[in-house]
Amino acid sequence: MPDPLSDFHQFHEAALDAAYALVRLQDVVVRYFKLSIQARRNVSASPLYVEHMAPFMDAIRKVPECPEDESMFRRMTVARVALMRAPLAFRNMQGANAHQLVLGVSLFFIRLWNRRARPEERENPPSTRAGPAHFVLYPPGAEMDLVAFMDEAHQCLGDYNPLSLHVELELEYVKATERLEPEKQNEGNLIQRNRDNWQLRYRNETGDYPVKGNQSIAWLAKLLATPNSALYVADLRGDPEGKLAADAKLGSEPEIDRDGIRAFKRELEELEELIATAGASESLLERKARLLQSMKSSSRGKTIGSSLKRDHSNMATQLRNLCRKLEKKMPHLASHLKACLKIQFPTIGYFPPEPAPNWQF
Q1: N or C: which end of the chain has fewer CB within 10 A?
Q2: Long-range contacts: 221-225, Cβ < 8 Å, 24+?
Q3: CA distance 335 to 256
Q4: Domain boundary among 161, 180, 199
Q5: Are residues 52 and 171 in the same domain?
Q6: Which of 152, 180, 208 is the last residue of a domain?
Q7: 257 lies in the same domain as 314
């Protein structure tokens, strides 16, 4: 028997893939217009087709066939209304929900590319209630007008920020899945330590994780036990007076951004999150290097922030790493936590949508 949650998750993954493709396309378009006019003439359309346009088509192919996709769009719209989120738009393109918008934007750029790759071909019309359109993505031919495509794409993406779409997609998905199985949303969720292992259960997902190397699960348990509360480092660390040395207590944990004490500012956190999910492009790494250099120069060798900021940065990194670790066995829990964990110095909190899931400890 088909699993509706599995299909729903595939639908969500398709939208996420489309959002990542949009980020990558924006990156290459912005870099293109930083080149000299002579350098632009040497840019080939073939790598752009493979690396930046084909991912849009791959995402579209993940969307289940009609009529289920229409039902899923409706569910996302209902979820968005329940969350009381503001309407979304890409330029003059409106979307009832983030999933509809990002997939619609994917089709927009596929059609924009096709017009320049094969100007002599008849364009496919948008889908209607009579059935979906069968979209294709043409490889670039000899007549490909790459300059015109890049110019049109730059007009759309030059100053657009696609990062906010990722947050909206996760929020909609979490709320929609909770409405999809209301009889399960308040039952059976578990986070419990049994000697050397943590046992986790969320909906129909289960996982066992060793205590060693997963201190972040202990922090997660405290967060889940106090929903809609902003907890400080001392609350999670179990050191009310804040006098314990963080390095001694937390040193066994992997800390990818220990040097990221300079990265607690919002812009750098967003950059690192984007690099982790969408890939390390040249322009993103360049922006990160410039920001780090600027902060280093302004500090003139002095340590930025206190040990409290360092502890908070460490906890934030480990909780994000935990979400990525959960994606393999417990993708629904990973999506739920990504949407509901609010990490902003000096606090961390768990803020689930209503009705909040019940947890056993």
Answers
A1: N
A2: 221/191, 221/193, 221/361, 223/341, 223/348, 223/349, 223/350, 224/191, 224/350, 224/359, 224/361, 225/359, 225/361
A3: 21
A4: 180
A5: yes
A6: 180
A7: yes
Cα–Cα dist 324/318, whole Å: 10
Assigned token pair, 149: 């495509």
DSSP helix/strand/coil, 237: helix
Nearest alpha-carbon partner for 216 in 247, 250, 244: 250
d(CA 158, CA 235): 43
Residue 198, both tokens:
């943590």
In this predicted structure, what is the pLDDT of residue 64? 61
Q: How far apart are CA 137 and CA 110, in angstroms?
A: 6
159 or 155, higher pLDDT = 155
The strand pairing partners of 128, in sequence order, are 131
201 and 165 share a domain?
no
The residue segments making up the domain with residue 87 are 4-180
* CB distance 112 to 152 below 8 Å: yes
- In this structure, the number of other CB atoms found within 10 A of the CB of residue 70 comes to 12
> How many percent of the chain have pLDDT more than 70?
77
Residues 139 and 45 in one domain: yes
